[in-house]
Amino acid sequence: MKSIKIIAFLLLIVAGTASAQNRNNTKCPFQFLYHFGDAISDTGNSVRVLPLLPPTRSPYGVTFPGSPTGRWSNGRVDVDYVADAVGLPNIVPYLSMYDSRSYDGVIFSVAGSTALNTSFFESGGISTPPYDIPLDTQLNWFRSYLQSNCANQTECAKRQPSNSAVLFEFSELNDIGYALVQGKSIQEVTNYVPLLVEAQINAAREVIKLGATRVVYTTAAPLGCYPYILTALTTNDTSAYDGLGCLRAVNSIAVKFNANLTASFLALKVEFPSVNILPADYYATLRVPINFKTPILASAKNSKCPFHILYRFGDGISDNGNSVRVPPFGPILPPTRDPYGVTFPGYPTGRWSDGRLEIDYVAKAVGLPNIVPYLSIDASRSYDGVVFSVAGSTSLNASFLESRGIGVPPFHIPLDTQLTWFRTFLQLNCTSQTECAKRHPSKSSIIIEFAELNDIGYALVQGESIQEVTNYIPLIVEAQINAAREVIKLGATRVVYTTAAPLGCYPYILTALTTNDTSAYDGLGCLKAVNNVAVKFNKNLLLSLLALQAEFPNVQILPTDYYETVIAQIKLKMPLAFNADNPIRQLRRPSSGLTEFGDFNYKINCPSFRVGVEANNLRDWDTIPSYCKNYIKTYLTKNQWSLDVEALANEAFEYAATFEQDAYLNYCWVFDVEETLLSNLNYLASSDILD
């Protein structure tokens, strides 16, 4: 029973809290783990509430650790894999701990527990198990633990919520399940949804106010697929079941709950913008093994990939060579010359990077190496995937933007045109019957990614207000949902969506909308108002995707969170967390500097490149662009570099002077010398920048 749930939790950790960090080479960004929830993560609390429960005897625990421990499984549960993945092995159930010992995490989850308290159910004539420990009681345990004695000062600091990841997981929807099997109707239990959401949001708000900076929540599982629900609500009406044999009406409740929960957590993110609030989609993830009886992310090394071909729609994040093939300006775009492609594959290919793109890593991971840009395909050849993405593209078509006086790059290929390419590709002659079968949408995974929100970015830098571009959101969402609906009707069974990135952190936005109003920036130097547009877009997109999932229950619709992933990367790259009052606030990755004619604006590009390098906030580049060499040489050999080092030293000194000694902590001060220059002396000399 537990094996299918492990997948979802591992996806959560890899994509969210640890930013796919491997503990062997990157320090985990948190030191402690707290977990609230039900049986999915109960490692032994329920059997300490009621010692006669089944997990006290065989076969529970026979494969791990070799004897019963209170886990509702014959082996590991999700949190055991998480503990191993993040390098925090000593995570224990709350009811087993001792004040005098040191731990890496505490589990407050209890099997069979509910988000609502017992009195609510008793008032409605609904009974709950005697070992049910509702969320409010689990929060009391959490508060008690924080107030308990520490083993030492290090332990006191380690267990603080600010140093932890806090996980909320009530994905089994026991509140709904108990009511349904005891005679409550679908309509009656649907009325519980806002109460359940409110309980979880209030709990998250409380732990944030106690200092938590990383909160993960899970959506509800497809309750209509659970055996006890199928047994209690069995019916001869075959239309009540979907293609997986699950009860449609019950799963619709879970979908409605997930839509409300996701929207409420997005609102909480706006309320607490500096807190990482990360979703994990249990609903879509658990339907995958039910459907295929195989792991969701099959490794090419040890398991057959569940799809044969990959299709990708989007913008510059995944364009591996289309934009440079769009006439008339494509062949003269920057990615046709150095330094693009210098680290992979060794020469320019049209990727907007000096090396690999995300799609290259995906191709390797799923064992589909031959993924090519659409404009390079030869109908006589066989491929593992086709990329329709084009740098600078939008979800809305050019006529809409032009009607509002908004210019777009001449190589811009909007989503509707990319869909036309897709339909054309499907109709091309195949090299063989096998190839025809392989390229069919039902055998594919389709990724729709317009994370850069170019529709909104172009409008903002050309004078549209925040309010005006906010009005674009429902139009952009509709365009993307219609695209997904079309590929599904063409046969697609796996559709992956990406949320928008934090547009307010993008260099060209920071350059175009720069202001002396320090309150306009957040702690990362990003523009708050622009990022709020992205957050609102993501909220609308996720709600629409959940509705689409209800419309097509047999299709896997899987969201990926670009917003929090990019924010996490910015934080990891920043040597110091500058506050809004710091004059050195805009740590920018390099702007492409492109004008609408495809040439360079050197004034924007080279200074942005230099600042990005010095702030360690630069991705996808490890050489100095040839057109910036003179700029960099002037910067280093004249007076500006010395002045900048002096200014940074003064800032560090003033920052250090604000600290007061904490009785529980010993501070270690690291003064970061200008190692960026020192470590690159040989390279700079060989590049004729330093004579």
Give a quick precis of the structure.
The protein is an alpha/beta fold and 691 residues long. The chain has 27 helices and twelve strands. It has three domains: 3-292, 3-Layer(aba) Sandwich (Rossmann fold); 309-568, Rossmann fold (3-Layer(aba) Sandwich); 602-686, no CATH class.
Helix-strand makeup class: alpha/beta
What is Rg?
27 Å
- Number of helical elements: 27
Into which percentage range does the β-strand content fall?
Answer: 5-15%
CATH topology of the largest domain: Rossmann fold
Uncertain segments of ≥5 residues (pLDDT<50)? Answer: 1-26, 292-303, 575-604
How many independent structural domains?
3
- Classified by CATH, the class of the largest domain is Alpha Beta
The geometry reads as globular
> What is the second-level CATH architecture of the largest domain?
3-Layer(aba) Sandwich
| Share of helix, binned | 40-55%
Sequence of strands across the biggest β-sheet? 2-3-1-4-5-6
Tell me how many strands there are.
12
Mean pLDDT: 81
Distance between the termini: 67 Å
Biggest sheet, open or closed, and with what strands and sense?
A: 6 strands, parallel
